[in-house]
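Morning F.,

Quick status update on the modeling queue. The single chain you submitted on Monday has been processed. Sequence for confirmation:
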Amino acid sequence: MGKPLTTEEVEKFMRQFKMLIAGIVIVLLLPLMIYTLYLDRRLEGFVDTLRYRPPHEVDEFAAEENAGDALIANPVQGQVVYVPAYSHIYHDDGDPYLLTITLSVRNTSLDREIIINSVRYFDTKGKEVKSYLAKPLRLPALAATEFLVERDDVTGGSGASFLVEWLAKEECTEPIIEAVMIDTQGQQGISFARNGKSVREIVPEKPAD
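Structure tokens below.
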């Protein structure tokens, strides 16, 4: 049997062991700490780029200089607009999910009214099932109007659509025409919108001299 260790030798060994453990911990943790600090600073920098900043005000002189350059964007005087709509969509194994449809027509012109000549609703097979206007409807500047297809009205189907015809006395900006589908039955809800697309431009006939 070997000679038993003295108290001093045991204490010396424990000190050396603790120093070894401390060295290992420093070697392993120091790079990790440095990398963590690096990631924190990068994250702070990234968050700072997303922070809200108030809009930059235009220089007064530049604003006056460009004031005369304002033009009507994409000026038109009339269109037939196709708007896709869905009186139901499918879920699970093909079960229908009924939806309420709101057709929204918004006059984007700042100072000119438009006239909605007709709003016609078609089913999946392209057959007209409803006409919403008995006579033209005037829509003042920046005004909006809506047409509703109730949730239980399934005549349109999953491929329903609208055709909206509008005119203006003078060229103006295109109205925003879109269909909004929504249902909030039970614990779940669904909503989405589809924009209309112009399929024909209408040029009003000029009166004879």
